[in-house]
Recover the amino acids of this structure.
Protein backbone atom coordinates (compact mmCIF):
# COMPACT_ATOMS: atom_id res chain seq x y z
CA UNK A 1 0.00 0.00 0.00
CA UNK A 2 1.17 3.52 -0.72
CA UNK A 3 2.26 5.36 2.38
CA UNK A 4 -0.08 8.26 1.58
CA UNK A 5 -3.07 5.91 1.38
CA UNK A 6 -1.98 4.11 4.53
CA UNK A 7 -2.00 7.40 6.46
CA UNK A 8 -5.57 8.34 5.55
CA UNK A 9 -6.98 7.18 8.86
CA UNK A 10 -4.17 8.93 10.77
CA UNK A 11 -4.93 12.23 9.05
CA UNK A 12 -8.70 11.98 9.44
CA UNK A 13 -8.34 11.77 13.21
CA UNK A 14 -6.26 14.91 13.52
CA UNK A 15 -6.64 18.63 12.88
CA UNK A 16 -3.16 19.76 11.85
CA UNK A 17 -4.03 23.41 12.39
CA UNK A 18 -4.31 22.55 16.07
CA UNK A 19 -1.90 19.75 16.83
CA UNK A 20 1.85 19.94 16.24
CA UNK A 21 2.01 16.25 15.35
CA UNK A 22 3.45 15.69 11.86
CA UNK A 23 0.97 15.33 9.01
CA UNK A 24 3.27 12.91 7.21
CA UNK A 25 3.24 14.83 3.98
CA UNK A 26 6.94 14.61 3.25
CA UNK A 27 9.73 12.20 4.01
CA UNK A 28 8.09 8.88 3.20
CA UNK A 29 10.78 6.33 2.44
CA UNK A 30 9.21 3.56 0.47
CA UNK A 31 11.83 0.92 0.76
CA UNK A 32 14.17 0.89 3.68
CA UNK A 33 16.77 -1.81 3.94
CA UNK A 34 15.70 -4.40 6.49
CA UNK A 35 18.68 -3.60 8.70
CA UNK A 36 17.77 0.09 8.86
CA UNK A 37 14.10 -0.22 9.83
CA UNK A 38 13.26 2.10 12.69
CA UNK A 39 11.26 1.45 15.78
CA UNK A 40 10.08 3.87 18.41
CA UNK A 41 8.22 3.56 21.69
CA UNK A 42 6.42 6.72 22.74
CA UNK A 43 5.17 7.17 26.27
CA UNK A 44 1.85 8.93 25.98
CA UNK A 45 0.05 10.47 28.94
CA UNK A 46 -3.38 10.64 27.31
CA UNK A 47 -6.59 10.00 29.23
CA UNK A 48 -4.76 6.85 30.32
CA UNK A 49 -0.99 6.49 30.29
CA UNK A 50 0.14 4.01 27.64
CA UNK A 51 3.10 3.25 25.41
CA UNK A 52 2.80 3.49 21.62
CA UNK A 53 4.91 0.83 19.96
CA UNK A 54 5.77 1.61 16.32
CA UNK A 55 7.65 -0.39 13.70
CA UNK A 56 8.69 1.06 10.34
CA UNK A 57 7.34 -0.94 7.41
CA UNK A 58 6.62 0.14 3.83
CA UNK A 59 7.14 3.83 4.46
CA UNK A 60 4.93 4.16 7.53
CA UNK A 61 5.05 3.30 11.21
CA UNK A 62 2.87 0.28 11.98
CA UNK A 63 1.48 1.10 15.41
CA UNK A 64 0.14 -0.53 18.55
CA UNK A 65 -0.94 1.09 21.80
CA UNK A 66 0.53 -1.05 24.57
CA UNK A 67 -1.68 -0.30 27.53
CA UNK A 68 0.74 -1.43 30.26
CA UNK A 69 3.92 -0.85 28.28
CA UNK A 70 6.50 -3.41 27.13
CA UNK A 71 7.87 -5.90 29.64
CA UNK A 72 11.24 -7.62 29.57
CA UNK A 73 9.78 -10.63 31.42
CA UNK A 74 9.02 -13.45 28.96
CA UNK A 75 6.02 -14.50 31.06
CA UNK A 76 4.27 -11.16 30.54
CA UNK A 77 1.92 -10.92 27.61
CA UNK A 78 1.21 -7.24 27.14
CA UNK A 79 -1.96 -6.20 25.35
CA UNK A 80 -1.04 -4.21 22.24
CA UNK A 81 -4.03 -2.62 20.53
CA UNK A 82 -3.41 -2.18 16.84
CA UNK A 83 -4.01 1.44 15.79
CA UNK A 84 -3.72 3.44 12.59
CA UNK A 85 -0.42 3.74 10.70
CA UNK A 86 1.61 6.81 11.62
CA UNK A 87 3.97 8.81 9.37
CA UNK A 88 7.70 8.11 9.73
CA UNK A 89 8.32 11.63 11.04
CA UNK A 90 6.23 10.69 14.06
CA UNK A 91 9.21 8.71 15.36
CA UNK A 92 10.81 12.01 16.42
CA UNK A 93 7.67 13.53 17.88
CA UNK A 94 7.82 14.69 21.45
CA UNK A 95 5.53 17.36 22.78
CA UNK A 96 2.04 18.20 23.91
CA UNK A 97 -1.12 17.38 21.97
CA UNK A 98 -3.55 20.13 22.99
CA UNK A 99 -6.70 19.53 24.99
CA UNK A 100 -9.70 18.75 22.85
CA UNK A 101 -7.57 17.13 20.13
CA UNK A 102 -7.22 13.44 19.38
CA UNK A 103 -4.85 11.83 21.91
CA UNK A 104 -4.56 15.03 23.99
CA UNK A 105 -1.67 14.88 26.44
CA UNK A 106 2.12 14.73 26.63
CA UNK A 107 4.25 12.45 24.48
CA UNK A 108 7.92 11.54 24.95
CA UNK A 109 10.15 9.28 22.91
CA UNK A 110 10.70 6.60 25.52
CA UNK A 111 12.89 4.39 23.34
CA UNK A 112 14.05 4.24 19.77
CA UNK A 113 16.41 2.31 17.58
CA UNK A 114 16.28 -0.34 14.85
CA UNK A 115 14.15 -3.43 14.54
CA UNK A 116 15.24 -6.49 12.65
CA UNK A 117 12.51 -8.83 11.39
CA UNK A 118 13.32 -12.50 12.02
CA UNK A 119 10.77 -13.64 9.44
CA UNK A 120 9.22 -11.90 6.40
CA UNK A 121 7.72 -8.79 8.02
CA UNK A 122 4.98 -8.23 5.43
CA UNK A 123 3.73 -11.79 5.60
CA UNK A 124 4.04 -11.74 9.38
CA UNK A 125 2.11 -8.48 9.68
CA UNK A 126 -0.61 -9.74 7.33
CA UNK A 127 -1.11 -12.99 9.21
CA UNK A 128 -0.78 -11.47 12.65
CA UNK A 129 2.50 -12.94 13.82
CA UNK A 130 5.68 -10.83 13.84
CA UNK A 131 8.99 -11.96 15.30
CA UNK A 132 11.88 -9.52 15.48
CA UNK A 133 14.91 -8.24 17.35
CA UNK A 134 15.06 -4.78 18.84
CA UNK A 135 18.22 -2.67 19.00
CA UNK A 136 17.04 0.21 21.11
CA UNK A 137 18.50 2.29 23.91
CA UNK A 138 16.31 0.51 26.47
CA UNK A 139 14.76 -2.48 24.72
CA UNK A 140 16.77 -5.28 23.17
CA UNK A 141 16.66 -8.98 22.39
CA UNK A 142 13.99 -10.89 20.55
CA UNK A 143 10.26 -10.19 20.65
CA UNK A 144 6.98 -11.35 19.20
CA UNK A 145 3.81 -9.48 18.37
CA UNK A 146 0.94 -11.89 18.01
CA UNK A 147 -2.59 -11.07 16.97
CA UNK A 148 -5.30 -12.58 19.16
CA UNK A 149 -8.07 -14.41 17.45
CA UNK A 150 -11.12 -12.15 17.68
CA UNK A 151 -14.29 -13.39 19.34
CA UNK A 152 -17.09 -13.92 16.81
CA UNK A 153 -18.18 -10.47 15.69
CA UNK A 154 -15.40 -8.93 17.77
CA UNK A 155 -12.59 -6.64 16.70
CA UNK A 156 -9.27 -7.95 15.43
CA UNK A 157 -7.24 -5.11 16.94
CA UNK A 158 -5.91 -6.97 19.95
CA UNK A 159 -2.36 -8.26 19.74
CA UNK A 160 0.07 -9.37 22.43
CA UNK A 161 3.64 -8.09 22.82
CA UNK A 162 5.85 -10.80 24.29
CA UNK A 163 9.56 -10.86 25.14
CA UNK A 164 11.45 -14.00 24.12
CA UNK A 165 13.61 -15.76 26.70
CA UNK A 166 17.16 -14.59 25.93
CA UNK A 167 20.01 -12.57 27.43
CA UNK A 168 18.00 -9.36 27.22
CA UNK A 169 15.09 -10.86 29.20
CA UNK A 170 14.55 -10.18 32.89
CA UNK A 171 13.04 -12.18 35.70
CA UNK A 172 9.99 -10.90 37.57
CA UNK A 173 12.23 -10.24 40.58
CA UNK A 174 14.38 -7.84 38.56
CA UNK A 175 13.54 -4.14 38.10
CA UNK A 176 10.75 -3.16 35.71
CA UNK A 177 12.34 -1.34 32.75
CA UNK A 178 9.40 1.12 32.68
CA UNK A 179 10.24 2.21 36.24
CA UNK A 180 14.00 1.91 35.95
CA UNK A 181 14.22 4.07 32.82
CA UNK A 182 11.20 6.32 32.82
CA UNK A 183 12.38 9.33 30.86
CA UNK A 184 12.78 10.50 27.27
CA UNK A 185 15.74 9.22 25.26
CA UNK A 186 15.64 12.48 23.28
CA UNK A 187 15.49 15.16 25.97
CA UNK A 188 16.23 13.14 29.10
CA UNK A 189 13.06 14.64 30.60
CA UNK A 190 10.30 12.85 32.47
CA UNK A 191 6.91 13.01 30.77
CA UNK A 192 5.56 15.17 33.59
CA UNK A 193 8.06 17.90 32.63
CA UNK A 194 7.47 17.90 28.90
CA UNK A 195 4.74 20.52 29.08
CA UNK A 196 7.08 22.95 30.91
CA UNK A 197 9.92 22.52 28.46
CA UNK A 198 10.22 25.80 26.53
CA UNK A 199 12.04 24.05 23.69
CA UNK A 200 9.05 21.80 23.04
CA UNK A 201 7.02 23.05 20.12
CA UNK A 202 3.45 23.53 21.05
CA UNK A 203 0.33 24.83 19.47
CA UNK A 204 -0.99 27.75 21.46
CA UNK A 205 -4.41 29.23 21.35
CA UNK A 206 -4.74 32.77 20.11
CA UNK A 207 -2.13 32.74 17.37
CA UNK A 208 -2.68 35.82 15.20
CA UNK A 209 -4.05 35.31 11.74
CA UNK A 210 -1.26 36.21 9.35
CA UNK A 211 -2.84 36.83 5.98
CA UNK A 212 -5.46 39.54 5.59
CA UNK A 213 -7.02 37.43 2.87
CA UNK A 214 -7.64 34.61 5.27
CA UNK A 215 -10.92 34.60 7.12
CA UNK A 216 -11.56 32.37 10.05
CA UNK A 217 -14.86 30.49 9.96
CA UNK A 218 -15.96 32.60 12.88
CA UNK A 219 -15.15 35.82 11.15
CA UNK A 220 -17.02 34.69 8.07
CA UNK A 221 -20.12 34.17 10.11
CA UNK A 222 -19.94 37.69 11.47
CA UNK A 223 -18.62 39.86 8.73
CA UNK A 224 -20.55 40.76 5.64
CA UNK A 225 -18.45 39.49 2.76
CA UNK A 226 -18.86 42.79 0.96
CA UNK A 227 -17.06 44.69 3.72
CA UNK A 228 -13.75 43.23 2.63
CA UNK A 229 -10.74 43.14 4.92
CA UNK A 230 -11.16 43.25 8.62
CA UNK A 231 -8.74 42.65 11.41
CA UNK A 232 -9.28 39.65 13.61
CA UNK A 233 -8.75 39.88 17.31
CA UNK A 234 -6.72 37.20 19.02
CA UNK A 235 -9.84 35.97 20.74
CA UNK A 236 -11.75 35.70 17.52
CA UNK A 237 -8.85 34.01 15.80
CA UNK A 238 -8.85 31.41 18.52
CA UNK A 239 -12.58 30.90 18.10
CA UNK A 240 -13.23 31.79 21.72
CA UNK A 241 -16.77 32.52 22.57
CA UNK A 242 -17.55 35.94 23.92
CA UNK A 243 -20.44 36.82 26.18
CA UNK A 244 -22.09 38.86 23.44
CA UNK A 245 -25.06 37.21 21.77
CA UNK A 246 -24.27 36.01 18.26
CA UNK A 247 -25.72 38.39 15.72
CA UNK A 248 -25.81 37.03 12.23
CA UNK A 249 -25.05 39.50 9.48
CA UNK A 250 -26.00 38.45 6.02
CA UNK A 251 -24.08 39.42 2.91
CA UNK A 252 -25.35 42.76 1.54
CA UNK A 253 -26.74 41.21 -1.63
CA UNK A 254 -28.72 38.60 0.34
CA UNK A 255 -32.50 38.66 0.07
CA UNK A 256 -35.04 37.24 2.47
CA UNK A 257 -37.04 34.38 1.01
CA UNK A 258 -38.81 31.20 1.99
CA UNK A 259 -36.61 28.14 2.27
CA UNK A 260 -37.84 25.46 -0.05
CA UNK A 261 -36.89 22.19 1.59
CA UNK A 262 -33.41 20.76 1.68
CA UNK A 263 -30.58 22.78 0.20
CA UNK A 264 -27.53 20.71 -0.71
CA UNK A 265 -24.52 22.10 1.18
CA UNK A 266 -21.38 23.04 -0.74
CA UNK A 267 -18.78 20.32 -0.64
CA UNK A 268 -15.03 20.76 -0.85
CA UNK A 269 -13.42 19.73 -4.13
CA UNK A 270 -9.80 18.65 -4.51
CA UNK A 271 -7.79 20.89 -6.81
CA UNK A 272 -4.06 21.41 -7.31
CA UNK A 273 -4.24 25.13 -6.51
CA UNK A 274 -6.82 27.28 -4.71
CA UNK A 275 -8.63 29.74 -7.00
CA UNK A 276 -7.05 33.19 -7.15
CA UNK A 277 -8.71 36.56 -6.83
CA UNK A 278 -10.39 38.58 -4.14
CA UNK A 279 -13.79 37.07 -4.65
CA UNK A 280 -12.59 33.87 -2.98
CA UNK A 281 -11.89 33.27 0.68
CA UNK A 282 -9.95 30.27 1.92
CA UNK A 283 -10.26 28.43 5.16
CA UNK A 284 -8.87 25.29 6.70
CA UNK A 285 -10.97 22.27 5.77
CA UNK A 286 -12.36 20.80 8.96
CA UNK A 287 -13.60 17.28 8.57
CA UNK A 288 -16.89 16.51 10.17
CA UNK A 289 -20.57 17.01 9.59
CA UNK A 290 -22.33 19.86 7.89
CA UNK A 291 -25.37 21.09 9.73
CA UNK A 292 -28.18 23.00 8.16
CA UNK A 293 -30.68 24.65 10.47
CA UNK A 294 -33.71 26.72 9.67
CA UNK A 295 -35.61 28.75 12.23
CA UNK A 296 -38.97 29.94 11.03
CA UNK A 297 -40.68 32.66 12.98
CA UNK A 298 -44.48 32.96 13.05
CA UNK A 299 -44.21 36.04 10.83
CA UNK A 300 -42.53 33.96 8.21
CA UNK A 301 -39.17 35.69 8.72
CA UNK A 302 -36.37 33.19 8.62
CA UNK A 303 -32.97 32.99 10.23
CA UNK A 304 -30.59 30.56 8.68
CA UNK A 305 -27.30 29.49 10.09
CA UNK A 306 -24.64 27.19 8.78
CA UNK A 307 -21.88 25.40 10.42
MN1 LIG B 1 -1.06 7.02 21.97
Amino acid sequence: MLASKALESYRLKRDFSRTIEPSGGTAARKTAKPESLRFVVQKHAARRLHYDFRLELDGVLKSWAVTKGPSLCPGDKRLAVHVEDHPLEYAGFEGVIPQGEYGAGSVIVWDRGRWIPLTDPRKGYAKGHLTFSLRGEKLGGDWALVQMRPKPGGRADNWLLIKAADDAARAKSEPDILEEKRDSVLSGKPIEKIADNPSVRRWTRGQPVKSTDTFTPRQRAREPLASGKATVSRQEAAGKTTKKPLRIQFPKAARTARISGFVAPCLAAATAMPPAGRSFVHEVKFDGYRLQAVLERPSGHQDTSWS
